[in-house]
Write a structure and sequence with these properties.
By secondary structure, the protein is an alpha+beta fold. The protein has two domains: 111 residues, 3-Layer(aba) Sandwich (Rossmann fold), CATH 3.40.50.10330; 186 residues, Tumour Suppressor Smad4 (Sandwich), CATH 2.60.200.40. The chain has ten helices and 16 strands. The two termini are 25 Å apart.
Length: 319
């Protein structure tokens, strides 16, 4: 008989209801009792995922938010053990980009026990600040600038009550400052460029909550990273970015008629898109960095690269 492990964030889940649904799914699909491992404030999933691998389980289910999923995936990367998602957070970014159900526990467990595996890319981020170097993974996005500052300014209590809408208040706070980055960057070992920007975002996939399609050409299994540099000049620049992201990317691009209306090759000067396998960014002063919505302190340099097909993710059959 097969056996799963589930890494549970107890703050994000109803443990009693989840245990009951889990037991029913085990019986329905003929699996052994699942290894139950809860995250803690000191260990958000690293030790739990390692224990699951050491116990030789057939699949590891991440039951929590984006941070839990990212931490578990960091340990499963490069292994033969697949990751299943039981979304329970505010963003659920990877689940959204894989078109998985977000609020159906029974369906998520059925997928874990009887789905099929899909290989996806993993982003690797090397964070540097002086002598400190830290290597982490990201599944959705890494960011410097306004997005990281917005996360730092978000009220956790409001986020728990209002979800992603809490970020709207935070971004209003952040935009009161100039928030300009001065940086040098190098793509795929090429020429070094100098520029200034408000934000640099490196994506493994492109969709965010609220129908926001930030990186329209990003794919989670194309072996490349999609990068956007935001360089708005004043209020008009920000308005053009809003129109591009919410209207063109979020509405028009999703249908053939909308794409015809949008026209080919239309670009916004305030948004510079590039693709590549590795991006190195060096900053003139320390800046906040975020990975999949979690802050990782301030850095003076960031190197991101793609690890193609490094993670198995369980998805429903037929996807």
């Amino acid at each position: 008989m097969s056996r799963a492990a589930i890494v549970v964030n107890p703050v994000k889940t109803d443990a009693a209801a989840l245990r009951a649904a889990l037991e029913a799914a085990e019986q329905r699909h003929g699996w052994e009792e699942t290894l139950w491992l809860e995250t803690t404030e000191d260990d958000p999933g690293t030790g739990q995922a390692r224990e699951a691998l050491a116990r030789g389980v057939d699949i590891v289910i991440a039951a929590g938010g984006d941070g839990t999923v990212r931490t578990v995936a960091e340990e499963l990367r490069g292994s033969d053990t697949p990751l299943a998602l039981l979304p329970a957070g505010t963003g659920n970014l990877l689940a959204r980009n894989l078109d998985l159900t977000l609020d159906d526990v029974e369906h998520a467990l059925a997928t874990a026990f009887d789905g099929t595996d899909r290989l996806i890319d993993v982003g690797i981020a090397e964070l540097r600040d002086g002598a400190r170097t830290e290597k982490r993974v990201f599944l959705v996005m890494a960011g410097l600038g306004i997005d990281a500052q917005m996360i730092a300014a978000t009220d956790d209590e409001l986020k728990a009550k209002a979800g992603w809408l809490a970020y709207v208040k935070a971004i209003g706070t952040v935009l009161r400052d100039k928030n300009e980055l001065r940086l040098r960057y190098q793509l795929d070992g090429g020429r070094t460029h100098s520029t200034h920007a408000h934000s640099v975002l490196v994506g493994n996939c492109g969709s965010l909550p609220a129908n926001i399609l930030l990186l329209p050409d990003a794919a989670v299994d194309d072996g490349e990273l999609d990068i956007v540099v935001l360089r708005p000049e004043g209020v008009v620049g920000w308005l053009r970015i809003v129109v591009k992201v919410f209207w063109e990317n979020g509405v028009l691009r999703r249908t053939s008629a909308g794409r015809r209306l949008m026209g080919a090759g239309r670009e916004v000067r305030a948004m510079n898109y590039v693709k590549g396998r590795e991006l190195v960014v060096k900053l003139d002063r320390p800046q906040q960095v975020e990975l999949d919505g979690d802050l990782f302190g301030r850095v003076t340099a960031l190197r991101t690269r793609v690890d193609p097909g490094a993670l198995k993710v369980r998805v429903p059959r037929g996807m």
